[in-house]
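Single-chain item
Fold in token form
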Amino acid sequence: MDEPHAPRPRGGRGHRPSRQQPARLAALRAGAARLVGQPRRRPGGHVPRAVGGAARPGRHRGPAGRRRAVCLGDPSGLAARPGPPPCRGGAGRGGGRLGALGRDAGLPLSLLHPARPLAVARRCLRPRRARPRARRPCPEAGAVRPLALAGLLLLAALAGAAAWKSLPARTPARDGPAPIARLVSADIGGMRQWLLIRGADRTAPILLWLHGGPGAAQMPIHGITAGLERHAVVVHWDQRGAGKSNPPGFDPATMSIKRFLADAREVTALLRAEVGPQPIVVLGHSWGTMLGARLVARWPEDYAGYVAVSQHVDTLHGAVLARDWLREVAPGSELAGLPAEAFRDHGTYVRLMQAVEAHGGGMGVPLAALLPRALAAPEYRLPDYPRWLEGANRGSGPMWPDYVARDLIAEVPRMPVPMLVIAGARDRNTPLALVREWLASVEAPRGRRLVVFEGSGHAPFLTETERFVTTVAAFLDAVRAPP
């Protein structure tokens, strides 16, 4: 007699189905497959694996130690198979005939729930495949490419400019009936100094341009007033400590009014040898007028005329007038309350001029606006630009005690050559009131003329260039004409 034994639960590891079960389960699964659109399983075939997350009550380890997932509604464990867990579902969601069919067929209840769309079931029953991740284009890609191209073009332009600026300095040829275009270096005052000589007619009067500063060389921006080259041989001289004449190791102690006057005399002799015997007209701007007025008044036999642009008269008196103007436009400025003697200090004077510039009483043109033209000047190479800026920033500091003590009214009471004075009405650096005062006091037997540029400040040749060229050209033509 057989011994009684406890029945094994369905789905247990040792359960062996009867011979009738496989056929019945195959039929049930075939019916479920028709409901959800799965291809019919052949006898002994494989039911496609469900993909997705799993809501599973538990996991078992198979004989080989591999993880087995158990579908919900399959207590027999016949649907258990190696691989990822089946689709999400929950116990008790399937009901009625459909739920019973799912439990017997070993399908997840979530697929057979009437609330689930049939398309979701089809997707869940498809064999799992690795989906290639789509490459989404970067939204900024269209903007990055032009920017990258612009960056490359900029780098190429900078490299080309650097290569061009490393070539020897030169000046372009000049057109005209008897043109002259020369960049000259010579030993002047015991050091190498540079001159730019340009004109359409080498027999025309020589216009010797004395730049401001000291140190503010005009050569790199000479093209602004190139119209003067049709009426004169224009000479831009980089004075000692300025631009190309500011070499490494330059000694600022050599800067003095006496030394600059001696250098100017050597330049005059050089021009006679290099250009010719024609008349020389001296044009000075700002500091250049401080030098030019004394040069022409002392040696009138060598010069045919004098053009003063923003004539410097008296440094200390001019600073007081600038301070008084600053009181009107910026009453809260601490500089507006300083006494006159405070401006004998070079640093205080520089701060005053910076404040005047900031409030519209200076040049009227920022340095940044001049840089493109200066950088394009073929007469200057890369090492010249730091020297140019260094000289301009040094200014009159090394010679300040002598500079501030000068008074044009006392030193130049007589101008023996024809004189043209150009002044900007907005100039507070060299105030128009002081210019008028000097013109009223100076003796000028050959004539004087004052032209006020109402729209300009300290640099009329930058702000009203066309009128400036026309005015100076008329003066040069008068000098050239026979008496």
About this structure: The chain has two domains: 20-125, 169-480. Residues 20-125 form one domain.
